[in-house]
Specification:
- The structure is a single chain.
- By secondary structure, this protein is of the alpha+beta class.
- Helix content is 38%, strand content 13%.
- The strands form 2 sheets. A 5-stranded mixed beta sheet has the order 3-4-5-6-7. It has a 3-stranded antiparallel beta sheet with strand order 2-1-8.
- α7 links the parallel β3 and β4.
- The chain starts with a helix and ends with a strand.
Length: 273
């Protein structure tokens, strides 16, 4: 009963705070009554408000409630903070995000051997949802492949590189009207519960953002059990999503086939980490 009362009280205060925005919005001299609460209570309320905002999908201008709220939200907008997670679609999908965060890109030049293996962790990226892996120590793969978690990089003109995008479904959905807009073509058929991570391929010289191949039907176990080339062999093309075809019919077939060797050395590992 005490727990339910606390939840009710917190929700009530948050609701009052959101309603109060209509009164204090645009009024620089307005005195915020929430300043009388201690830091702990204020932090809990702000975080609860952020979650509510993420759930209902509306912008309540939380940072304008008062100076203390503004400061807390600035701190929570840093990578990993609750506002950062809300803005990137992580709220409600924390389990998938944690598995993605624990993931690795593994370069293995000799099959079934640890010689020359290079590991790049998603968690080592400055921003795990907006980062590009350092492949400079990965032989030919480092010269011809670019692997990123950032849709804006994936859809940029990057020259003669095979560009590989590795995106969380919940993140791509949240960014579908901005940097992930070209993914609108395939989002309706991407089941984020069955396949929480998708892999995408394109040739870095293309101007047409609708030219890419994608794998959005594989589980994390399936992705992890195959190298990038084998995963690409199961991919679909945006313009031919249902037509059976051989690999050279896909958008980047000719370019990708020339990199079969280095691409078969690279794995995206998302399980048992």
């Amino acid at each position: 009963m005490n727990r339910n009362f606390k939840l009710f009280t917190t929700s009530l205060i948050v609701s009052l705070a959101l309603a109060a925005l209509q009164l204090i919005y645009g009024t620089e001299s307005a005195q915020c009554s929430f300043d009388i609460l201690d830091e702990g209570a204020t932090g809990i309320i702000v975080k609860h408000a952020v979650v509510m905002e993420a759930i209902d999908g509306k912008n309540h201008n939380l940072a304008r409630v008062c100076a203390r709220w503004n400061k807390i939200l600035k701190d929570e907008s840093k990578v990993g903070g609750i506002w950062w997670r809300a803005k990137n679609g992580i709220i409600g999908h924390e389990e998938f995000y944690q598995r993605f965060l624990n993931g690795e890109l593994i370069y293995r030049p000799i099959s079934d051997s640890e010689d020359g293996v290079v590991t790049r962790k998603v968690s080592d990226l400055k921003n795990p949802l907006d980062g590009t892996f350092d492949l400079s120590q990965c032989g030919r793969a480092g010269n011809h492949l670019l692997v990123t978690t950032d849709p804006s990089v994936f859809f940029a003109r990057l020259g003669e590189l095979i560009v590989v995008g590795v995106f969380l479904h919940c993140f791509a959905k949240k960014k579908i009207d901005t940097e992930a807009a070209p993914l609108k073509l395939i989002m309706d058929n991407w089941n984020g519960e069955a396949a929480p991570v998708g892999i995408f391929w394109r040739w870095g010289v293309w101007d047409n953002l609708e030219w890419y191949d994608y794998l959005t039907s594989a589980s994390l176990v399936e992705i992890s059990s195959k190298d990038l080339y084998e995963n690409w062999n199961r991919s679909l093309s945006v313009l031919m999503p249902t037509n059976p075809r051989t690999p050279h019919h896909r958008h980047i077939g000719r370019e990708w086939s020339g990199l079969r060797g280095p691409s078969k050395c690279c794995y995206i590992h998302l399980v048992n980490t």
